[in-house]
Write a structure and sequence with these properties.
The protein is mainly alpha-helical and 164 residues long. It has 4 helices and no strands.
Length: 164
């Protein structure tokens, strides 16, 4: 019985190895359209983040000019520095997105599928880095604005474009 079990284990192991070798040799080619769709989806998310960041920047600028000078018992010089640093973070993320959008090529006509996949993967990595920039800018600016109870006006708050 032990000999039978041992042969069965060897046979089963060989089958598993064979299946593994066959599956690794038959790797499916990734369609560039799938990777491009991921890029577009991430871009769309970043556009929303960019809009939030711009609204936060406007709120920071308004707070800096209108409200900060009125505060008592606050080191306004230090607060100005913090606000300027947050604005710079927002500007860096926004400029990065603008540069990317100017250089991005959605049309890969004439490129092989493999080259197109490579191109879109590279573009996705750029967007992932931008996502990190936006996250830092948004988390920092939102925390600062919340600290002083500043409400951020979003594009559609209290204004109906259909009435014009």
């Amino acid at each position: 019985m032990k000999k039978y079990k041992n042969n069965y284990n060897k046979f089963f192991t060989r089958i598993l190895i064979l299946l593994f070798l066959m599956s690794s040799g038959c790797s499916e080619t990734l369609d560039y359209k799938i990777v491009r769709a991921d890029v577009v989806k991430l871009h769309d998310k970043l556009m929303v983040d960019g809009e939030k960041a711009i609204h936060n920047k406007i709120a920071l600028d308004t707070f800096l000019v209108r409200d900060l000078p009125k505060l008592k018992d606050v080191d306004t010089a230090a607060e100005r520095i913090k606000i300027n640093q947050l604005v710079l973070l927002i500007d860096e993320a926004d400029e990065s997105m603008m540069d990317w959008m100017q250089n991005f090529k959605a049309d890969v006509e004439g490129m092989s599928n493999e080259k197109a996949v490579e191109y879109f993967k590279s573009e996705k990595q750029k967007l992932v880095k931008m996502d990190s920039l936006y996250k830092v800018a948004l988390v920092g600016s939102e925390a600062y604005l919340k600290k002083y109870g500043v409400q951020v006006q979003l594009a559609n708050d209290g204004h109906d474009h259909s009435k014009h």
